[in-house]
Protein backbone atom coordinates (compact mmCIF):
# COMPACT_ATOMS: atom_id res chain seq x y z
CA UNK A 1 0.00 0.00 0.00
CA UNK A 2 2.86 2.40 0.84
CA UNK A 3 4.46 1.73 -2.57
CA UNK A 4 1.15 2.53 -4.26
CA UNK A 5 0.79 5.79 -2.29
CA UNK A 6 4.37 6.78 -3.10
CA UNK A 7 3.76 6.04 -6.78
CA UNK A 8 0.58 8.13 -6.83
CA UNK A 9 2.31 11.02 -5.07
CA UNK A 10 5.25 10.86 -7.50
CA UNK A 11 2.91 10.76 -10.51
CA UNK A 12 1.01 13.81 -9.23
CA UNK A 13 4.27 15.66 -8.59
CA UNK A 14 5.48 14.87 -12.11
CA UNK A 15 2.20 16.14 -13.58
CA UNK A 16 2.52 19.37 -11.57
CA UNK A 17 6.07 19.84 -12.83
CA UNK A 18 5.03 19.12 -16.43
CA UNK A 19 2.27 21.73 -16.06
CA UNK A 20 4.98 24.32 -15.28
CA UNK A 21 7.13 23.45 -18.30
CA UNK A 22 5.53 25.83 -20.83
CA UNK A 23 6.38 28.76 -18.55
CA UNK A 24 9.92 27.46 -17.92
CA UNK A 25 10.39 26.92 -21.65
CA UNK A 26 9.38 30.53 -22.24
CA UNK A 27 11.88 31.73 -19.65
CA UNK A 28 14.74 29.66 -21.02
CA UNK A 29 13.91 30.61 -24.60
CA UNK A 30 13.90 34.31 -23.66
CA UNK A 31 17.20 34.01 -21.75
CA UNK A 32 19.03 32.33 -24.64
CA UNK A 33 17.40 34.62 -27.20
CA UNK A 34 18.14 37.86 -25.35
CA UNK A 35 21.77 36.86 -24.85
CA UNK A 36 22.02 35.69 -28.48
CA UNK A 37 23.64 32.44 -27.40
CA UNK A 38 23.19 28.76 -28.15
CA UNK A 39 25.22 27.38 -25.23
CA UNK A 40 25.26 28.28 -21.53
CA UNK A 41 26.56 26.64 -18.38
CA UNK A 42 24.01 25.03 -16.11
CA UNK A 43 25.09 27.32 -13.29
CA UNK A 44 24.66 30.47 -15.40
CA UNK A 45 21.26 29.37 -16.69
CA UNK A 46 20.05 28.52 -13.19
CA UNK A 47 21.24 31.92 -11.94
CA UNK A 48 19.44 33.75 -14.76
CA UNK A 49 16.19 31.87 -14.14
CA UNK A 50 16.23 32.59 -10.41
CA UNK A 51 17.38 36.22 -10.64
CA UNK A 52 14.92 37.13 -13.39
CA UNK A 53 12.05 35.16 -11.86
CA UNK A 54 12.24 35.36 -8.06
CA UNK A 55 9.15 33.17 -7.71
CA UNK A 56 11.46 30.32 -8.81
CA UNK A 57 13.85 29.94 -5.89
CA UNK A 58 13.99 26.15 -5.55
CA UNK A 59 17.08 25.16 -7.54
CA UNK A 60 16.31 21.46 -7.18
CA UNK A 61 12.84 21.86 -8.67
CA UNK A 62 14.15 23.99 -11.55
CA UNK A 63 16.83 21.33 -12.18
CA UNK A 64 14.19 18.59 -12.28
CA UNK A 65 12.08 20.65 -14.66
CA UNK A 66 15.11 21.18 -16.92
CA UNK A 67 15.57 17.39 -17.04
CA UNK A 68 11.90 17.00 -17.96
CA UNK A 69 12.37 19.55 -20.75
CA UNK A 70 15.29 17.52 -22.07
CA UNK A 71 13.12 14.40 -21.90
CA UNK A 72 10.04 15.89 -23.56
CA UNK A 73 11.74 18.11 -26.19
CA UNK A 74 15.19 16.57 -26.70
CA UNK A 75 15.57 18.19 -30.09
CA UNK A 76 15.39 21.65 -28.54
CA UNK A 77 17.51 21.48 -25.40
CA UNK A 78 20.31 19.13 -24.55
CA UNK A 79 23.09 18.97 -22.03
CA UNK A 80 26.66 17.75 -22.00
CA UNK A 81 29.81 17.98 -19.92
CA UNK A 82 32.49 20.38 -21.15
CA UNK A 83 36.18 19.55 -21.24
CA UNK A 84 36.73 21.69 -18.12
CA UNK A 85 33.99 19.97 -16.13
CA UNK A 86 31.10 22.43 -16.49
CA UNK A 87 27.69 21.09 -17.51
CA UNK A 88 26.53 22.95 -20.62
CA UNK A 89 23.03 23.42 -21.97
CA UNK A 90 22.61 23.87 -25.69
CA UNK A 91 19.44 24.96 -27.48
CA UNK A 92 18.44 24.39 -31.07
CA UNK A 93 17.08 27.70 -32.33
CA UNK A 94 15.89 26.18 -35.59
CA UNK A 95 12.98 24.51 -33.77
CA UNK A 96 9.75 26.51 -33.74
CA UNK A 97 8.96 27.88 -30.27
CA UNK A 98 5.22 27.55 -31.05
CA UNK A 99 5.53 23.84 -31.84
CA UNK A 100 7.62 23.23 -28.72
CA UNK A 101 5.11 25.09 -26.58
CA UNK A 102 2.28 23.06 -28.11
CA UNK A 103 4.12 19.81 -27.45
CA UNK A 104 4.62 20.78 -23.80
CA UNK A 105 0.97 21.74 -23.47
CA UNK A 106 0.00 18.30 -24.86
CA UNK A 107 2.20 16.59 -22.26
CA UNK A 108 0.02 18.01 -19.49
From TrEMBL:
This is Uncharacterized protein.
